[in-house]
């Protein structure tokens, strides 16, 4: 009676192997879900960045305020009869 139980136990373990370690096994599914979660978080960050860049592009195309701001801070330009004063920050 001991041999049939042992044979059935081994057969059950042999059938369980593909479920846990096979091509579509649980361990690979868990790893794929983890990678998917990481990729979704990265995509969310990139979507937010793209939305900000899109808003800046639209502002540059339609409005003059963004262009004026960039000209002031990046190029140091001023309007006629305007005095530019820069206050250094303490470090």
Automatic annotation (TrEMBL):
Major site of localization recorded for this protein: membrane
Membrane topology: Single-pass type II membrane protein
Name assigned to this protein: Cell division protein FtsB
Assembly and oligomerization: Part of a complex composed of FtsB, FtsL and FtsQ.
Cellular localization per UniProt: Cell inner membrane
An individual GO BP term: FtsZ-dependent cytokinesis
Transmembrane segments: none
InterPro entries: Cell_div_FtsB, FtsL/DivIC
Domain of life: Bacteria
NCBIfam families reported in the protein's UniProt record: PRK00888.1
Stretches of the chain found on the membrane's Periplasmic side: 22-91
Coiled-coil region list: 29-63
Originating organism: Denitromonas halophila
GO cellular component: cell division site; cell septum; plasma membrane
Keyword presence, Transferase: no
Keywords for the protein's UniProt record, in alphabetical order: Cell cycle, Cell division, Cell inner membrane, Cell membrane, Coiled coil, Membrane, Transmembrane, Transmembrane helix
UniProt-listed Pfam families: DivIC
Segments in the Cytoplasmic topological domain: 1-3
Record function comment: Essential cell division protein. May link together the upstream cell division proteins, which are predominantly cytoplasmic, with the downstream cell division proteins, which are predominantly periplasmic.
Family the entry assigns: Belongs to the FtsB family.
